[in-house]
Amino acid sequence: MTSGMTDQTGANAADVGICIIGAGPVGATLACRLAREGIRVAVVDRAALPPMEHPDFDGRAYAIAAGSKNLLEAAGVWERLPHVPCAIEDILVTDGRPGEPASPLSLEFTREDATQPFGWMAEARALRVALNATLHASPNVTLLAPAEVSVVRNEAGVTVTAKDGRVVRARLLVAADGRGSRTRSQAGIAVTKLPYGQSGIVCAISHEFPHDNGALEHFLPGGPFAQLPMTGTAEYPHLSAVVWSEKDAMARRLAELPQREFARELQRRMGSRLGEVTPVGRRWVYPLSAQYAQRYTATRLILAGDAAHGIHPIAGQGLNLGFRDVIALSELLIEAHRRGEDPGSPALLARYQARCRPTNMLMFVATDMLDRLFSNDNPVLRLARDMGIATVQRFPRLRKAFVKHAMGV
User: Coil, helix or strand for 129?
Assistant: First the structure.
């Protein structure tokens, strides 16, 4: 194991301040951020980390908002990204139907609406490589991965025991183990789920013309279609990510089309703004739903990221919402560490829930309403949303307010 990472194979137990269940982007970033402040952290995951670093381009990418970029820089992760992320400097929002010209009433966010890029597109594999490298470089991180563990929480603390006998004792447990969080279920925290009857198709495309760091959000009756600019490669100099929502059955049929027919369907939704398009890499299909936990805390336990909430990808805010949890939680834990306070105290848990859950619920409601408003072909709703788009376009202050919130700064 790389120098700096504590290997528990030869030790009976490790005492840390925080134990994080889940080494995905949210859990790993939290660990890196806390470790950099001198807080001893354990990270537990059922999968080994090296296999997550698949070397082949697979078409998946993350939209990283400005606030999230600041977090990744503070955690020492951003500087380790092996590929330069692509800045998003323009966003065109349109409404229409497949194969038809978009409505003339559109909305465009440009460089004049912000003092920095709206966000950055980072390959999923690149972020995973950077997170793994940062975890391995930190002397304050103990890693149990792969590991199947049992957890005991009480007022005195947390004990995490792996099947192979490794033990971690902590003051606070953070569940960052995804939408199907077993940690959350074991704590008896109820979840409200909202299926959409939609699936998201995720892939990458090569296109004829440069994207000029511009993104497209095109609302269609089956669901939103997003083209997001990516950093090109020697083989594909003009490259973008696609997140494409459709009704479940249609999404499955589209994803299984031969290459030429799939490219034709992409073109029908994108139009000719980027010229001829060619699918690149794998196609991924994910059922879309939303969910929220009834509470974010239990005895010495905090939920973060998808374990606490899941939203529709219509605004590209899913991971950024998780990173906002990390920003809030890391600030609270770093302050508690500096003051010598208990990181698992009821007071700290209450402050975290009060800070995060109301704003997360607002985003949940907003994305749910957006999907219901735009993912249909009702002529009355089409007129209403087109007028809404045109209204925002006319008022620079309103555009800038939208931008500031989405950027998370």
Answer: helix
Question: Measured in whole angstroms, how far is the alpha carbon of residue 157 from the centre of its chain?
Answer: 30
Question: By the 8 A CB rule, do 211 and 238 touch?
Answer: yes
Mark out the alpha helices in 51-167 (DSSP H runs). 66-74, 124-137
Q: Is residue 352 in a domain?
A: yes
Residue 38 lies in a domain: yes
Whether 269 and 353 map to the same domain: the answer is no
pTM confidence score: 0.89
Q: Are residues 159 and 298 in the same domain?
A: yes
CB atoms inside a 10 Å sphere around CB 271: 15
| CA-closest candidate to residue 140, choices 37, 35, 49 | 35
The Cα–Cα gap between 301 and 345 comes to: 10
Bridge partner residues of 161 (DSSP): 150, 167
310, 367: one domain:
yes
Which helix (H) or strand (E) segment holds residue 288: the answer is strand 277-293
Question: Between 71 and 52, where is the model more confident?
Answer: 71
Is 33 in contact with 98 (CB distance < 8 Å)? no
For residue 379, is it within any domain? no
The answer to whether residues 70 and 136 belong to one domain is no
Q: Is residue 115 located within the same domain as residue 179?
A: no
Q: Return the closest-CA partner of residue 34 out of 186, 130, 139, 160.
A: 139
> 147, 46 in Cβ contact below 8 A?
yes
Residue 154 in tokens: 């009480």
Whole-angstrom Cα distance, residue 158 to residue 318? 29
Tens digits of per-residue pLDDT, 3-56?
334 444 444 678 999 999 999 999 999 999 999 999 999 999 999 887 556 656
DSSP H/E element including 34: helix 25-36
Q: Which of 240, 259, 289 is the last residue of a domain?
A: 289
Q: Determine the structural domain holding residue 25 and report its residue range.
A: 6-57+125-193+291-371
